[in-house]
Amino acid sequence: MIEMQYVWIRNYESPRTIVAHQHACYEFIYYLKGDGEGTFGKTKYRYEPGTFVLVEPEVVHGETHNTQTSMISIGFCLRDHFCAPQTCCYKDEPPRLFDVVQEIRHEFKQKSACYREYIEALLGIVLVAILRKSSVAAPAKDTNIDYAISYIREYYMSDINLAELARSTGYCDDYFRIIFKKKTGMSPKEFILETRLDAAKKMLADKNYSLTDISAKCGFEYYSRFSLFFKNKTAMTPSEFREKALREAEKG
């Protein structure tokens, strides 16, 4: 989650030096006009129109303008472990971020309904573009397996076609099973059943669900099959497990 802190649209008519300073939040700077030099930490960079810089919180940075300079600076914070690149400087080539920056500039000036949320969404585009330019953007080899795991966790109650799931992640059936087991320690089918079992245990601890409802919600057409599956996994029938869970809930 991105939380915008400020947007500064600055125009410096004559050469000047911005003294070294730091912020408690991230700062994204896009140079629209002018040229000069800047620093972040011990790193020096030169800027011209289309240069952009991302500065992490508490990193000291400053700049010297050689000519009339126009720029936009955006401060923001990141929440919920949003992946962010380290402090960096790039040239916008080809110019992919220019239009995004101009849209942010327009939204901040107009302040239309939900402008803050829109700017935060645009900042997400900016960060992804920077991640793609940096080493952080290198895709994890098992990213598609993570997608498959997420899909199973959302649709465990349905009849999941594992061959189709393998194809949707870009793998053949056999290789999909191999890397899925490497990632989870279980085959895809075992993972589906374990996910159903975990869901059943949670629902059995809630007396508002009937046993037949739980059976259906866990993907079993017949309660008898659900009961047999559950007993094979836990050595208890669903009703025995419920009684135990409710007793323990009353004690604790």
Total helices: the number is 9
Helix content: 40-55%
* Shape label: elongated
Spatial order of the strands forming the largest sheet: 1-8-3-6-9
Taking the alpha carbons of the first and last residues, their distance comes to 36 Å
Order of helices and strands: EEEEEEEEEHHHHHHHHH
Low-confidence stretches: none
- Secondary structure tally: strands: 9
Mean pLDDT: 92
Q: Find the CATH superfamily of the largest domain.
A: Jelly Rolls
User: Rg to the nearest angstrom?
Assistant: 27 Å
CATH secondary-structure class of the largest domain: Mainly Beta
Level-2 CATH architecture of the largest domain: Sandwich
Task: State which percent range the strand residues make up.
Answer: 15-25%
| Number of structural units classed as domains | 2
Structure notes:
This protein has 252 residues and is α+β, with helices and mostly antiparallel strands. The protein has two domains: 136 residues, Sandwich (Jelly Rolls), CATH 2.60.120; 109 residues, Orthogonal Bundle (Arc Repressor Mutant, subunit A). Helix content is 45%, strand content 23%. Helix 1 runs antiparallel to helix 2. The model has no long low-confidence stretch (mean pLDDT 92).
SSE layout:
Blueprint: E1 2-12, E2 17-21, E3 26-33, E4 36-40, E5 43-47, E6 51-55, E7 61-65, E8 69-78, E9 88-91, H1 98-110, H2 115-133, H3 143-155, H4 162-168, H5 173-184, H6 188-204, H7 211-217, H8 223-234, H9 238-251
Antiparallel strand pairs: 1-8, 2-7, 3-6, 3-8, 4-5, 4-7, 6-9
